[in-house]
Design brief:
By secondary structure, the protein is α/β, with parallel strands linked by helices. It has a six-stranded parallel β-sheet with strand order 5-2-1-6-7-8, sandwiched between helices. Strands 9-10-11 form a three-stranded antiparallel β-sheet, covered by helices on one side. The chain starts with 25 loop residues before the first strand and ends with a helix.
C-alpha cells in the first residue's frame, strides 16, 4: 500500500513542482459547477496538483455567461485557476481507463455526481478504496445520499429549503436569495476542511476514508445562531430585513448622504457611538443602557439615531466612528469593496498565470513560509491531455522499474 503523496516533481515531463503546503498531493477533480471546483482551487492554490477531469462538453460553468473575458465565462475562471484539464467520456473504454489511471495516482478524489451514478463505471468510493485504501475520497451532494439523493443540488433550492430565504428580505417582501451561491461556497470550504483532516489522519494510520458533504447540512451549520435559536428556544426566526434578532443597533441607517451600517455589539461601543453622534445622554437612558433593552426598545431608539445621523454624510460618519472604534461601514459596490481592501493593505488582487496575464482574488489564507501560488490560468477544455498522458506514462515506467 502506498500512503505517501505521489510526488510528481521529479518525473520526466513533471506536472507541477511547487513549494506550497500541499506540494506533492495529487487531486483528481471530477467535480463541476461551484462547491467542488471552489474547494479544489483552494487546494491547488496551496500547492496541490489538481487534475480537472471533465466531460467532452466541459464544466457547466464554461457556458455561464455573461460576464465574459475574451469570450470565456468569468464564472468558470473565478474558481478553476492552478488546475490541469483533461476531457474524458466515461462511456469510452479508453477514456475510462485513463480516468482510472489518474485516480490510481491520486491522493484525493473529489466528485459531485448524483449518488450512485459513478458505481456503473467502478469509480465509486467502495470500488476505488478496495485497491487503493489510502485514497481520500470526497463526495459532495445536494441533500445527502438517503431520501434526498435524487434531488438536484442547486444552491437556490438549498437557500429556499434550509430557511435562509425566509430570513432574507424585509417583512413586507418575498424572501430573497443571497447575492452569491453562499451554501455552495460554504460546502466547498467544508469539503476542503474534511479533506485536510483526512489527509492528516492518514499520516498516522496509512488509510484514507470517505469524506461526505452536502449543501443542506452545510446550510444548516452555516445558519449558526438562527438554527440554534430555533432548536434551543423553539422560536422560529422571522424575516427582519437588515435588522439583527438579538442586538441593536445593527443595520443600515440613512445619513445626510448615503446609508451607513452601524453594528454595535456591546455597551462600550454604544457609549462611544452616542458620544460621536453628540447624544451622550442616550447611552445612560434606562430604555437603552443594556443590549437586551436596546434590542427590545429598538423602535424608540432608531428615530433618535436617524435624527443624529442626518447632520453628516455616510463617509464622514464612517471616518469619525472608525476613529473611535465604533463598528460602522458604508454600503459599497463590489468595485468599492475591492478598492477599500486595497486601501487597508490587504492586496486583494493578484496576477494569475506565468506572466500574470489575468487578475484574480487573492487566496484567503496567508502562509509565512509557503504562500499560495497563482501559476496557472484556468485551463481550456482538454488543454492538458498530452501533458497528463505523458505524466501517466512516466509514472508507469517508474513503477515498472521499481518492480524490476
Amino acid at each position: 500500500m502506498n500512503n505517501q503523496p505521489h510526488d510528481i516533481s521529479d518525473l520526466t515531463g513533471p506536472m507541477d513542482s511547487t513549494s506550497g503546503p500541499l506540494s506533492g498531493i495529487v487531486v483528481a477533480d471530477l467535480s463541476r459547477v461551484l462547491a467542488g471546483p471552489y474547494g479544489t482551487m483552494l487546494l491547488a492554490d496551496m500547492g496541490a496538483t489538481v487534475i480537472k477531469i471533465e466531460s467532452r462538453q466541459g464544466d457547466d460553468t464554461r457556458a455561464w455567461m455573461p460576464p465574459v473575458l475574451d469570450g470565456k465565462s468569468t464564472y468558470y475562471m473565478s474558481i478553476n485557476r492552478n488546475k490541469r484539464s483533461v476531457a474524458l467520456d466515461f462511456n469510452d473504454p479508453e477514456d475510462l481507463e485513463t480516468a482510472r489511471r489518474i485516480i490510481g495516482r491520486a491522493d484525493v478524489v473529489v466528485e459531485n455526481f448524483k449518488p450512485g451514478s459513478l458505481a456503473k463505471y467502478n469509480l465509486d468510493y467502495a470500488t476505488i478504496a478496495a485497491t487503493q485504501p489510502e485514497v481520500v475520497y470526497a463526495s459532495i451532494t445536494g441533500f445527502g445520499t438517503a431520501g434526498g439523493g435524487a434531488l438536484p443540488g442547486y444552491d437556490l433550492m438549498v437557500q429556499a429549503i434550509s430557511g435562509l430565504m425566509d430570513l432574507t428580505g424585509s417583512p413586507e417582501t418575498e424572501g430573497f436569495r443571497s447575492g452569491v451561491a453562499i451554501f455552495d461556497v460554504i460546502t466547498g470550504l467544508h469539503t476542503t476542511i474534511g479533506i485536510l483532516a483526512a489527509l492528516r489522519e492518514r499520516e498516522h494510520t496509512g488509510r484514507g476514508q470517505l469524506v461526505e458533504t452536502n449543501l443542506l447540512s452545510s446550510a444548516q451549520s452555516g445558519l449558526v445562531n438562527q438554527t440554534a435559536g430555533y432548536l434551543l428556544s423553539g422560536s422560529v426566526p422571522e424575516r427582519m430585513g437588515n435588522e439583527h434578532p438579538s442586538i441593536y443597533p445593527y443595520e443600515p441607517f440613512p445619513t445626510a448622504q448615503g446609508p451607513l451600517i452601524i453594528a454595535v455589539g456591546n455597551d462600550g461601543q454604544f457609549r462611544r457611538l452616542c458620544n460621536v453622534l453628540g447624544i451622550p445622554g442616550i447611552a445612560a437612558d434606562e430604555r437603552f443602557c443594556t443590549p437586551p433593552l436596546r434590542s427590545r426598545n429598538r423602535t424608540e431608539l432608531r428615530p433618535i439615531l436617524v435624527d443624529a445621523l442626518s447632520t453628516n454624510d455616510a463617509q464622514s460618519w464612517f471616518d469619525l466612528l472608525t476613529e473611535q472604534n465604533v463598528p460602522a461601514a458604508p454600503i459599497n459596490s463590489i468595485a468599492q469593496g475591492i478598492d477599500y481592501a486595497e486601501s487597508i493593505g490587504l492586496d486583494p488582487v493578484v496576477r494569475v498565470g506565468p506572466a500574470g496575464e489575468m487578475p484574480g482574488i487573492r487566496h484567503p489564507i496567508g502562509f509565512s513560509r509557503t504562500p499560495a501560488r497563482y501559476d496557472l490560468l484556468p485551463p481550456d477544455l482538454d488543454a492538458d491531455r498530452e501533458h497528463i498522458l505523458n505524466w501517466l506514462g512516466a509514472e508507469s515506467r517508474l513503477a515498472a522499474q521499481s518492480r524490476a
